[in-house]
Amino acid sequence: MAEAYIVAAARTAGGRKGGKLAGWHPADLAAQVLNALVARSGADPALIDDVIMGCVGQAGEQAGNVARNAVLASKLPQSVPGTSVDRQCGSSQQALHFAAQAVMSGTMDIVIAAGVESMTRVPMGLPSTLPFKNGFGSSMSPAMQERYPGVKFSQFTGAEMMSRKYGLTRDDLDRYALESHRRAIAATQAGRFKDEIVPVAVRAADGSANGELHTVDEGIRFEASLESISSVKLIEEGGTVTAASASQICDGAAGLMVVNEAGLKKLGVKPLARIHHMSVLGHDPVIMLEAPLPATLRALDKAGMKIGDIDLFEINEAFAPVPLAWLQTTGADPARMNVNGGAIALGHPLGGSGAKLMTTLVHALHAQGKRYGLQTMCEGGGMANVTIVERL
Fold first, then answer.
1. 250 among known catalytic residues
2. Catalytic residue among 25, 89, 181, 363
3. CB-based contacts of 288: which residues, under 8 Å, 6+ apart?
4. Taking residues 8-19, what's their average pLDDT?
5. pLDDT tens for residues 271-322?
6. Of 288, 327, 386, 345, which Cα lies nearest the Cα of 14?
7. Which helix (H) or strand (E) holds 302?
8. Cβ neighbours for 141, distance < 8 A, ≥ 6 positions apart
9. What is the C-alpha to C-alpha distance for residues 360 and 340, in angstroms, rounded to an integer?
């Protein structure tokens, strides 16, 4: 079977809700990343076999197959197709898996895996709250309610369940949140995100632009302190999680160009990384956020690797209990995890985060001269993708 290689990886800087990317239609924002991937790889855009794009809020401006709309908004020829994927927060990580599977099978040679989410313009949860006629409309079916009686699937509940299960305190979470900001600040000030970020024009909510380019993740709180983080109100009375120890609402897009050996020859480029392993696991949908823990252990076993074999980890910071519990379970070195900060500081553009994290991971492996990187993230419904890449 053919191998799958990453030959280009790029992302926009994250935008706060109502912030510097608020004026971008999500298809147009994603198109900026598609154009950047073509430019960075030097690819003939007509050679691209498909665009697979993750997106969670597939309603409003993100409805109607946002992947195809992004192609039509880009410089790619209309002969390039596109399809949209929803595996909740892991949507664009799954897009990467689908792209890799396509080129490994030989049915395609060059595929773009991407993701986009404008949480300003398509608020979180919108598709499941849209009104329907005749009283229909809940995503939780009668059969699901029978199987899980009285359960309301909630990520916030799952986060608190993880804190209790793994003995995590409010102070643990607050200190972790501060460290996320500190690492993101250090990475930004050292210019470690420069090569991965696609500069895009700042657009206000009304679409107007002032000539400024957006190049710095807007969610980073450069003035963050333990005192300020500890002053944030708890989401649930008696709980541990606050808005400061949860991922930030974010607008953003990211993408990776994935090819096989035939694709490498067509493009005449050197690969950045090779996909070494990819898997996905379903787990308890009630605690929901715990899936990355068993998924990582299973992935390492399937890959014939140990946790110490991995040089860098990207564990999505949906809520601080997730990476902290993951560290407990895997025994990984905290210094190797989220070395440039995570979603608590940098933002979590839902369907765009999988491609965003992999973009950061691939660039970090090159910057540090490391070999293996592992990425995983919790996903709605109690699932987790795991991807292991080898820097080349």
1. no
2. 89
3. 153, 154, 155, 157, 158, 378, 380, 381, 382
4. 97
5. 999 999 999 999 999 999 999 999 999 999 999 999 999 999 999 999 999 9
6. 345
7. helix 292-303
8. none
9. 8
Cut 0.85: pTM above it:
yes
**3-class secondary structure, 314:** strand
Residue 6 φ then ψ, to 5°:
-100, 125
**What is the distance between the alpha carbons of residues 60 and 38, in angstroms, rounded to a whole number?**
28
Length of the chain: 392
**Residue 73: strand pairing partners:** none
Instruction: Write out the two tokens for 238.
Output: 């008696």
Gap between the Cα atoms of 379 and 153, Å rounded: 12
Q: In the chain, which ranges are E strands?
A: 5-11, 15-16, 50-54, 82-85, 110-118, 200-203, 209-214, 250-259, 273-282, 312-315, 372-379, 383-391
Amino acid at 208: S
Q: Which amino acid is at 207?
A: G
Number of alpha helices (DSSP H) and beta strands (DSSP E) in the chain? 13, 12
pLDDT tens-digit readout, 203-257:
877 777 888 999 999 999 999 999 999 999 999 899 999 999 999 999 999 999 9
The question of whether 348 is a catalytic residue gets the answer yes
What is the tens place of the pLDDT at every residue in 327-353?
999 999 999 999 999 999 999 999 999
Give residue for tokens 């491609």: 355
**Distance set, CA 43 to CA 28, 62, 205, 268, 358 (Å):** 20, 27, 33, 9, 20
181, 214, 283, 348: which is the annotated catalytic residue?
348
Would you give the distance in Å from CA 385 to the centre of its chain?
11
Distance CA 305, CA 46 (A): 38
DSSP state for residue 258 in the 8-state scheme = E
Q: What is the pLDDT of residue 382?
A: 97
Residue with tokens 């909740």: 88
Q: Report the pLDDT averaged over residues 6-27.
A: 97
